[in-house]
Amino acid sequence: MTWQVILAFSVTIPALLIAAILVACVFYRRYKAFQFARQQYLAGPRHIEHSLCKVQCCIWERELEVL
Question: How far apart are alpha carbons 18 and 38 in whole angstroms?
Answer without folding.
Answer: 30
